[in-house]
From TrEMBL:
Organism in which the protein naturally occurs: Melanomma pulvis-pyrius CBS 109.77
PROSITE patterns on file: ZN2_CY6_FUNGAL_1 (PS00463), ZN2_CY6_FUNGAL_2 (PS50048)
GO MF entry, a single one: zinc ion binding
Protein name (Swiss-Prot/TrEMBL): Zn(2)-C6 fungal-type domain-containing protein
Compartments where located: Nucleus
Comp. bias intervals (Polar residues): 92-105
Lineage: Eukaryota, Fungi, Dikarya, Ascomycota, Pezizomycotina
Superkingdom to which the source organism belongs: Eukaryota
Length: 715
């Protein structure tokens, strides 16, 4: 008897097998044992170009009819219908405070809808801003997305259907594993992550514990929420399509820092090189994700923060010219979300407003200082920005209701915001220096003195714990970030003063009218060199807490090296040469020395060599008998000062600087011709504000410049 027959029916009726679940897949997916999305046609049939043969069994149709969730096809048919539920996983869960997230968009939009819900609405209002919300971007000039130029078109015309995330590519005929498919880039990026989650956990925690609290990079609680959501996803198309590339870019650049922080003191050069290569791998993954993410999603604060961290990473590697480009990207991402307009004008919650102010200040400081360092135009125009500086209050860990009533703290109780708005204030002066003194037109020396007075006024307003001379360090134990913020502000101050007075450092005047620039430049350069000598005694984790800014934008050792070449016989030249020699030795013994820093060391060593050669040449010439006595010449400026004290001015010999009118536009044509071998004159870098310094890697050009500078003073 057949095993499937029963005695009662004579073996003609087979026993039906009970199904553990209802069939919902199409016939083709069921036969191939593939996961079907239930659409008509489904994704797999569309991908295989057999959409016409995508059919369902009666049981699958009844199952689909009995469910209440709309299918993917019905969602695509309604342009103005709500977005599918799956992409909403990219937004912040209700249990987490929105204003501390890397992406404040849901909070800003939700707050706007709450405020306007009681007012009568026009039937066409539903169309306005749909494009904006679907791209998951923050408010910008109202509820539209592309700014005032496109406002009328977006308001009058129906909003196009641009779905959030990458689910709009579900109808593609390419698999996400295919090279030409829309998911191939994401697939490659995920392959760059460490295979073990425990390794990522350790590296990420190193960044949050060692560096994040000092540079105000991300909000730890908000970052960890998205971090947990990322690792809780399951393999498959649905969870694969929900990956937020904007946050993934932030994760990669955090891993780039974390790898270095995980082993800040490598035992040998081979281990250091391995760590550097691993860090660079994550850095390039972050750059790649930053470029791809806006194509799939739009802008978010995660992208802005990733752009800021990428810029700081390049500064750490001494890639300052390239950091000028990445700063512009971060600025554009911020402007696309309206961060250049203060949150109070958007009527955003106080907590989110303070977060956006601090983030904008980070971008502002980087943009102004990097532009001044490389001699290129800055990207942020103050006349187009309406952002107030941050206040001395920290609201990231407060609820919205508590944050709205929290009082501002006095300066005696500092937070990270104090450093933030002080650096912003100095960056405003840096922007004025770039615009007024390093433009296409020459300015009077009075303008330089006026800007220097602005710097001194900024210094006078510093709180006691940030003073340049004898700062109050009693609060450092209670507020650990103060020590590193102090070093950062001091480095930024010295960078600003040295850059402002650099064009006048080597200029000569019979009335000594540029003495203020000489003294200011030398004083700031010596103070900064002292900080650099102490820098080598710190671990990498401590260095990164304060050097991801102006410290690596210039090198005071180069400035002092030029001074010794110009005045090798001055009273302070011996002391400067000793400090420069110690600096070069410490640099060469530093295990984290890279090729850019090594190039700067070679230039400083070249300055030391040239200065000693000039001193030896002078000593040998003085030892030889001469037919008649000649007045002793130490160096150009000191020789002039000594002559002024002993000789009547009418008896002075002709001197080139006497013929120069420094208030005219063509005074550089009147300087002596000291052009180098390749047509480069030393005045271009040290006397013309419209020129920036030579690249440190151009050693041959530097040698020509130093030879020409040495030729100004008689030997």
């Amino acid at each position: 008897m057949d095993a499937g027959a029963t005695p009662g029916n004579g073996g003609h009726h087979e026993r039906k097998r009970k199904r553990g679940r209802h069939a919902a897949a199409c016939i083709s997916c069921h036969r191939r044992k593939q996961k079907c999305d239930g659409a008509r046609p489904c994704f797999n049939c569309t991908r295989r170009s057999v959409a016409m043969s995508c059919t369902y069994t009666d049981e699958a149709q009844r199952t689909a009819h009995s469910t209440s969730t709309p299918s993917a096809s019905s969602t695509r048919e309604l342009p103005n219908s709500p977005l599918p539920e799956q992409p909403r996983r990219l937004q912040t869960p209700p249990s987490v405070d929105q204003n501390t997230q890397s992406n404040p968009t849901p909070a800003g939009i939700a707050g706007a809808s709450t405020r306007t819900s009681s007012a009568p609405s026009d039937p066409s209002d539903g169309q306005v801003g749909h494009l904006f919300r679907s791209r998951d971007a923050s408010l910008y000039f109202g509820s539209f997305y592309f700014g005032p130029q496109a406002a009328a078109k977006i308001i009058e015309a129906p909003a196009p259907d641009l779905s959030s995330g990458i689910r709009h590519a579900a109808g593609s005929t390419h698999s996400f594993r295919d090279v030409g498919g829309p998911f191939s880039q994401i697939w490659d990026l995920l392959g760059l992550l460490p295979r073990k989650k425990s390794s990522v956990d350790r590296i990420t925690e190193c960044f949050l514990a060692e560096l994040n609290w000092a540079i105000d990079a991300v909000h730890p609680a908000s970052f960890k929420v998205k971090y947990d959501l990322f690792w809780e996803r399951k393999f498959g198309f649905e969870d694969f399509a929900s990956i937020d590339l904007r946050w993934l870019a932030l994760l990669f650049i955090i891993l780039a820092y974390g790898v270095l922080l995980d082993c800040p003191n490598p035992k040998n050069k081979e281990l250091q090189r391995e760590l550097q290569e691993s860090s660079l791998c994550f850095y390039w993954a972050a750059r790649r994700a930053i470029v791809i993410a806006p194509t799939f999603y739009g802008e978010s604060l995660d992208l802005v923060r990733a752009g800021v961290l990428v810029t700081r990473y390049l500064i750490h590697l001494r890639g300052v010219p390239e950091s000028w480009l990445t700063t512009s990207f971060a600025m554009r991402m911020a402007q696309a979300q309206g961060i250049h307009i203060d949150g109070e004008r958007w009527r955003l919650p106080r907590k989110e407003t303070e977060t956006r102010r601090r983030l904008w200040s980070h971008i502002y400081v980087l943009d102004k200082t990097i532009a001044l360092a490389v001699g290129r135009p800055f990207a942020i125009v103050d006349q187009q920005c309406l952002v107030k500086r941050a206040t001395n209050i920290w609201l990231d860990d407060h609820a919205d209701e508590e944050a709205s009533t929290a009082p501002e703290l006095p300066l005696s109780e500092p937070t990270l915001s104090v450093y933030n708005f002080l650096a912003h204030d100095l960056a405003v002066i840096v922007g004025k220096i770039q615009e007024g003194c390093f433009g296409l037109f020459t300015v009077s020396y009075d303008t330089v003195l006026s800007l220097d007075q602005d710097i001194m006024n900024w210094e006078a307003r510093l709180p006691p714990y940030f003073r340049l001379q004898d700062p109050d360090t009693s609060k450092d134990e209670l507020y650990p970030f103060l020590f590193w913020n102090r070093l950062h502000l001091h480095s930024m101050y010295h960078f600003t003063r040295v850059t402002l007075h650099r064009p006048y450092l080597l200029r000569q005047s019979i009335t000594n009218r540029f003495k203020h620039s000489h003294d200011a430049c030398i004083a700031s350069a010596c103070a900064d060199l002292d900080m650099r000598l102490k820098y080598f005694g710190q671990s990498l984790s401590d260095r990164l807490k304060w050097t991801l800014g102006p410290h690596h934008l210039f090198n005071s050792a180069l400035v002092l090296g030029i001074i010794t070449v110009r005045n090798p016989h001055s009273r302070r030249s011996n002391a400067i040469l000793e400090d420069l020699a110690a600096y070069c030795e410490m640099q060469r013994n530093d295990i984290w020395l890279n090729e850019f820093a090594l190039a700067e060391v070679k230039i400083v060593e070249l300055c030391i060599k040239k200065a000693k050669q000039f001193r030896n040449k002078k000593a040998s010439s003085n030892a030889q008998p001469t037919p008649r006595a000649q007045p002793e010449e130490t160096n150009c400026q000191e020789g002039i000062d000594a002559t002024l004290q002993s000789t009547d001015i009418r008896d002075l010999p002709p001197f080139p600087s006497l013929q120069i009118d420094f208030d005219t536009d063509d005074h550089f044509q009147q300087l002596p011709n000291l052009t180098g071998a390749n047509g480069y004159s030393w005045q271009a870098a040290w006397g013309d504000p419209s020129f920036s310094l030579l690249e440190a890697t151009d050693l041959q050009q530097w040698e020509h410049v130093l030879d020409n500078i040495m030729g100004v003073c008689p030997s």
